[in-house]
Amino acid sequence: MKKVIFTVADYGNGNNAGPKAKRDVDHYLLQSDFEIIHQQLNNKSKLDKIKTAYWVIPHLFNNIEKFDELFFQYPTYSSYVMKRLVKKMRSKSKKLFFIVHDVESLRLFQNDQTYWEGERSLFNATDGLIVHNHEMKRWLQENGVTVPMVELGIFDYNNPQKINQNSEYDRTVCFAGNLAKSKFLNKVSLQTGKLEIFGSYPSKHYLKGVSYHGQMSPDELPKKLTQNFGLVWDGDQLDTCSGKFGNYMRYNNPHKASLYLSTGQPVIIWKKAALAEFVIKNKVGIAVDSLENLDEILDKITAEQYQLMKNNTIKLASSLRSGQFIKQAVKNIENY
């Protein structure tokens, strides 16, 4: 059987973690006898999109025999190009599945019905979807997606660093990400706990207990994640996750959670996040309503409670590093 994972190559260099989730899917499915195909599509201008849609895509796979299964890493960030691409992939493969990294109608185009109609038609043109979790699946079903869907559970994370085994509890938390869109960090103030942050575009001034520790590549960053917890939060408020990206947490699996957990760090996550259910069920962290009382939250955790979370996280880290979740999801959608 000829099985292919097809990825539109946006693998940049440097410290941007954006492409890592797709790179990791490639890495793990290569271990499951998939062939990896990358294609560079230039979508920077309207002229580029027209050239891609009417010249590049029609000639894709011309000298390759038909596939039995094609798994496409969705999206490509051009709905115009996607329509042509799906038509081409359908003609070249007996089965077409999407591995959904983002539902843009829930992320950048919230409440845009026209955009959703286009995205829904793309999803329904497949033979099935691998989606993040139950909440994403429920929303898609309620809004007209009719193809089979299976839940990933959580993103795997190819982590080259050693799993952090240190279980000493000292009330430390880390946050990694794009600090420019994480305005809530400017409002965190701690008396007994410590919050250490990593990423691009830091603020010039943070309050007591908060310190900036620089920016690193996704592969190097885990060396620095020696704190007790990794924080999964978004927006500009302490009492809720706000804005487009904060609301998106109600449906998606934030990739930074996989970074923390694969390193051996339990997480602190917003209670209304879709991934909170996974965290609580697997006892690999805590879910909270607000960060306004973060000191009190950290003070209430006993050394014994933390040790249990730490032990569970170390076990989960091994699963994330082996690609267990994406490999199982592929099997589930194939056997649906």
Description:
Keywords: Transferase. GO terms for molecular function: transferase activity. This is Sugar transferase. The protein is α/β, with parallel strands linked by helices. It folds into 2 domains: 3-151, Glycogen Phosphorylase B (Rossmann fold, 3-Layer(aba) Sandwich), CATH 3.40.50; 172-321, Rossmann fold (3-Layer(aba) Sandwich), CATH 3.40.50. It is built from 11 helices and 12 strands. It has helices spanning 20-30, 46-56, 79-92, 113-124, 134-142, 243-248, 255-263, 276-281, 294-300, 303-322, 324-334, and strands at 3-8, 35-39, 67-74, 93-100, 128-131, 149-151, 172-178, 194-200, 210-212, 229-232, 267-270, 285-288. The chain has a 6-stranded parallel β-sheet with strand order 2-1-3-4-5-6. It has a 6-stranded parallel β-sheet with strand order 9-8-7-10-11-12. It is globular, with a radius of gyration of 21 Å.
Tally of discrete structural domains: 2
Placed side by side, the strands forming the largest sheet appear as: 2-1-3-4-5-6
Tell me the series of helices and strands, N- to C-terminal: EHEHEHEHEHEEEEEHHEHEHHH
Q: What's the number of helices? A: 11
Number of strands: 12
Strand content: 15-25%
Average pLDDT, all residues: 94
Per CATH, the superfamily of the largest domain is Glycogen Phosphorylase B
CATH class of the largest domain: Alpha Beta
Terminal-residue CA separation? 18 Å
* Named CATH topology of the largest domain: Rossmann fold
Uncertain segments: 11-17
CATH architecture of the largest domain: 3-Layer(aba) Sandwich
Structural class, by secondary structure, is alpha/beta
Query: Nearest-angstrom radius of gyration?
Result: 21 Å
Helix content: 25-40%
Shape: globular
